[in-house]
Design goal:
six-stranded mixed sheet; single chain; 14 helices; D-Maltodextrin-Binding Protein, domain 2; 380 residues; five-stranded mixed sheet
């Protein structure tokens, strides 16, 4: 068969086939040449950081620390590998700060109240006085009220610690604690062997209590052996898993000794400063991100675990108003005494100024949540 030009159709088909083969061969050769010419690319080894919490492995606080680690590892796409370790894996809980500062650990998760022995001003960033504010408002002071600058100055200039700290994770008010019998007045705690941390130790010494400061994992065994008469740790989830219902049956809620607290994420400053700037920003951003998710998780878990505690036959009671009033009076004494230290006074004055404005705004601006709650949920 021929077309109108007189050429064979088969001949024209052969030409087109040959042209396609030529183009394909040339393209393959070019690709092969490009592959050979490109320099070899090697994947960068991940930055591995050893990160220990101050919490027992089974505690929800260690879970919160693990949530931060997971968030960092995911956000860096494998460039950073934080390794989460529970308290005691490398150093005991109360030695974590020094281990991070010296470089034994690259980082850690704890609370500023644990470093009370280095400076009582340190505890203001974890267990501040009960000025009517909550932990979210404490973190507002950290971000927008000058708190971070005061923290950095205390840690790096006054105490000469080689650490970078990030305050995160607001906590609700902590219980007065676990006891063998109901606390009806401040006098009931006179002479009591009682566990708390931070500035709460100064406050309960005003009550005449014999205060002992021990890490969370050591509290229940101490109560069981009679070394403690009463103790508080933090929240229903921690208290349940640590075994408090096994050694005490009175759980008193609501207290001004630790009306607000937040967590602290630490990194060795030399190590932190050596990291790429975007990784530094991820470590900070992950702290803020997990601060929110921790608060939401706590709402769910704490409420469920308080119900579980009640189901264990524990008598759950509110702390009497007389005890709360005695705590506020004790705060007056503690603040006045410790303000002889100019560093403490500078921080606490800044906190008072922030709380007066922010809490004053909230109380004026927000309706009473209990009034609305009782309308819908209070039993008839």
């Amino acid at each position: 068969m021929t077309d109108t030009s007189g050429k064979s159709t088969d001949a024209r088909q052969d030409v087109r086939t040959s042209r396609r083969r030529f183009i394909a061969t040339a393209a393959a050769a070019a690709a092969a040449g490009a592959t050979v010419a490109a320099p070899a690319v090697h994947a960068q080894a991940p930055i591995k950081l050893k990160f220990q919490s101050t919490w027992p492995n089974k505690d929800i606080f260690h879970e919160f620390a693990g949530d931060y680690v997971k968030r960092v590892n995911a956000m860096t796409g494998g460039r950073v590998e934080l390794e989460i370790l529970p308290a005691g894996s490398v150093v005991p809980a109360f030695q974590m700060l020094d281990a991070v500062s010296s470089g034994i650990l690259d980082g850690g998760h704890g609370v500023a109240a644990y470093w009370y022995g280095k400076s009582k001003a340190f505890s203001l960033f974890g267990t501040a006085p009960a000025f009517g504010w909550d932990a979210d408002e404490l973190l507002g002071w950290v971000r927008y009220g000058g708190g971070q600058q005061l923290y950095d100055d205390l840690v790096q200039n006054t105490l000469k610690l080689n650490v970078v700290g990030m305050l995160t994770g607001p906590m609700p008010s902590q219980p007065l604690g676990w006891f063998k019998k109901e606390i009806t007045s401040a006098d009931d705690m006179k002479g009591m062997k009682y566990r708390t941390v931070g500035l709460g130790a100064d406050l309960f010494k005003e009550f005449g209590a014999a205060v002992t400061i021990v890490p969370g994992g050591e509290i229940v065994p101490a109560i069981d052996r009679g070394l403690l008469d009463g103790a508080e740790f933090n929240n229903p989830s921690s208290d349940l898993i640590l075994g408090f219902p096994d050694v005490a049956k009175v759980y008193m809620l609501g207290s001004y000794h630790q009306a607000l607290e937040c967590f602290e994420i630490l990194f060795n400053k030399t190590k932190f400063d050596s990291l790429p700037s975007d990784v530094q920003e991820i470590l900070k951003g992950a702290s803020d991100a997990t601060s929110s998710t921790m608060m939401w998780k706590a709402q769910d878990r704490y409420s469920k675990d308080l119900a579980a505690i009640k189901a264990r036959g524990v008598k759950v009671l509110p702390t009497p108003k007389a005890v709360l009033e005695a705590q506020l009076n004790a705060w007056d004494v503690v603040i006045a005494n410790l303000s002889a230290d100019p560093v403490f006074k500078k921080v606490v004055d800044s906190q008072k100024e922030w709380a007066k404005r922010i809490v004053g705004f909230r109380l004026e601006y927000e309706p009473d949540s209990k009034f609305a709650y009782d309308h819908f949920f209070k039993p008839a």
